[in-house]
Design a protein that fits this description.
29% strand; 15 strands; 3-stranded antiparallel beta sheet; 260 residues; alpha/beta; globular
């Protein structure tokens, strides 16, 4: 089945207000910026987003966040995103913070059809006991807190029950992909993109290089096309538009050259 869609706008045309999205990316790598911008242009709002972070440097999900289009974030990292922190503390945004490994496994479990699992991560903390602020009231108080979770003992060790995550849509970015939706990710872009793709009921992938079926060695496929419903091919300009979050410049004492 040829899953290639002509434009990003067409690929996200059925994403409605209030939809839930699993979005790939790790920092600024592997972020589906073209699809995110297409959603921004559509004007959808009230989105529930599941992602490692919520964008940075006016890119990625930060575009939707700054426009007030996101109502809830499930993630593991706020980082240097000041607007994310401001909206959260002001009570404008509901945020469920999850240990990073637990978030990854919840996405994978949802995609694999596993409704829930036990993990030791978070036992003895508010992750398990409840009370984490999901939404503030804008005046320093907590308007909505996380509920307690089931804790069970196995072989003398306590584990907390976590539920798999499924979303209406998933947006991911791959280095290579074919028309059947088989995807290959580059280095750290592989961290959350395959997991987000698995969790989406409808998964849309933007690919930097589109190839014909059979051109990707089956052993090299990171995510099989069964998890992907739509593919868009990026232009060379879109594929090369990659930001650097923190640039480090050093001077060699030996020869006075500058490297970064």
């Amino acid at each position: 089945m040829d899953k290639v869609v002509a434009t990003a706008a067409e690929a996200v045309a059925d994403v409605a207000d209030g939809a839930t999205l699993a979005v790939g990316g790790f920092g600024l790598s592997g972020v589906p910026n073209v699809l995110i911008h297409a959603l921004y242009e559509r004007g959808v709002s009230g989105l529930g987003v599941v992602s490692n972070n919520c964008g940075a440097m006016e890119s990625g999900l930060a575009v939707l966040l700054a426009a007030g289009r996101i109502g809830r974030v499930t993630g593991s990292y706020i980082g240097a995103n000041r607007e994310f922190a401001r909206q959260y503390l002001a009570g404008e945004l509901e945020v469920e913070m999850i240990p990073q490994g637990t978030l990854a496994e919840r996405l994978r479990a949802g995609g694999a059809g596993i409704p829930a699992f036990y993990t030791p991560a978070g036992v003895g903390t508010q992750v398990a006991d409840g009370g984490l602020p999901w939404r503030y009231d804008g005046e320093g108080g907590v308007a909505l807190a996380s509920p307690p979770k089931e804790v069970r003992e196995f072989d003398g060790t306590e584990y907390v029950l976590e539920h798999g995550i499924r979303t209406d849509f998933a947006l991911v970015r791959a280095a290579r992909g074919d028309r059947h939706g088989n995807l290959v990710f580059n280095k750290s872009a592989r961290n959350f993109n395959p997991l987000a793709a698995m969790a989406g009921r409808v998964t849309i992938a933007e690919v930097e290089e589109l190839v014909e079926p059979g051109e990707i060695d089956p052993d090299a496929v990171h995510l099989p096309g069964i998890f992907v419903q739509r593919v868009i091919a990026l232009t060379p300009q879109q594929a090369n538009a990659k930001m650097i979050e923190k640039r480090t410049v050093s001077t060699s004492a030996a020869n006075g050259t500058v490297s970064q």
